[in-house]
Amino acid sequence: MKKTLFFLFLLLISTKITAQKPDTLAAYYDKIEKSFNYESGKIALSEGDGSLNVPKGFKFLNAEQTQNVLSNLWGNPEDKSILGSLVPDGKGLTHADSWMFVISYQGDGYVKDDDADDIDYTDLLKTMKEDVATENEARKKEGYPEVQLIGWASPPFYDKDLKVLHWAKELQFGQDKDHTLNYDLRVLGRKGMYNISAVAGVNQLAEVKASIPGIIKSVEFKDGHKYLDFDADTDTVAAWTIGGLVAGKVLAKVGFFAILAKFGKFIVIGIIAAFAGIKKFLFGSKDQVVTKPAEETALLEENNNSTEE
After folding, report:
1. 284 Rama sector, left if φ>0, alpha if ψ -120 to 50, beta otherwise
2. How far apart are CA 274 and CA 263, in angstroms?
3. Which has the closest alpha carbon to 79: 278, 199, 255, 272?
4. pLDDT tens track for 15-63
5. Is the pLDDT reported for residue 192 higher than 90?
6. What is the DSSP code string of the chain?
7. Does 309 score more than 50 pLDDT?
8. Phi and psi (nearest 5°) for 141?
């Protein structure tokens, strides 16, 4: 009964929002934008013995707010490993052209890079497509759209001097005509690596790539924890090398959570989610809340289509 009432509430609110005049709808978006508390300067990262110097042209959003954006605004599964994000100046997170770099840490050991020049990335791509197809079963069970790995948006490249690996994937979620870009950076350290992933549209590839030099230099391991500080006698060596990082094997335990999407259509869900008090009243405690992304998406698409006609 509570669940039925909640979805009736969703229908009422989303219909009301999408029926508003453009300036009124913009006010909703503006309210969300103003709720974010951005930071600048040097940020101590909570994991990995490193820090982030927020680069020029960006602002930092902490872990909790970043997760809120990814889940409630952009429709992604929850990922508790997220440490925060870098958002371009002048890009609101409810805007159609918004995007961000999501930051996390993987502390599973020192990654050997001696295979970097020997990897056949064309062959590796075939394996990755098969893995993504397999993971779609889990996505469907959780109510999320299937993913297709279209190909490289930018082929893998390993910077031996900076000890940074980067590559970009072009993805399609469901039947969405606007393909998603995941531009991945792996900053290697003595005991693990920082994962910095841009979540954007494929049409924003040039914009994302232009920011990469500054982003790479923004994350820094403390002295004694850098890649060159590795001690073969005491330190753990990771079970994968460069090829495994690109293939996503290091994130196997995360599964499809490792692939992030950004859909403008999820913004209305985010606005609805702002009514947290009513959700809690209807469902009880946070642990009892059960959301069905597929149902919310269907509802949203119905309303979007009605406003476009």
Report:
1. left
2. 18
3. 255
4. 555 555 556 667 777 888 889 999 999 999 999 999 999 999 999 999 9
5. yes
6. -HHHHHHHHHHHHHHHHHTS-HHHHHHHHHHHHHT---B-SEEE-SSSSEEEEPPTTEEEEEHHHHHHIIIIIT-PPP-TTEEEEEEETT--TTSTT--EEEEEEE-S-B---TTTTT--HHHHHHHHHHHHHHHHHHHHHTTPPPEEEEEEEEEEEEETTTTEEEEEEEEEETT-SS-EEEEEEEEEBSS-EEEEEEEEEGGGHHHHHHHHHHHHHHEEEPTTSBGGG--TTTSPBPS--HHHHHHTGGGTTTGGGGS----GGGHHHHHHHT-HHHHHHHH-SGGG----HHHHHHHHHHHHHHHH-
7. no
8. -65, -30
The tokens describing 304, both together, are 């979007």
The amino acid at 254: V
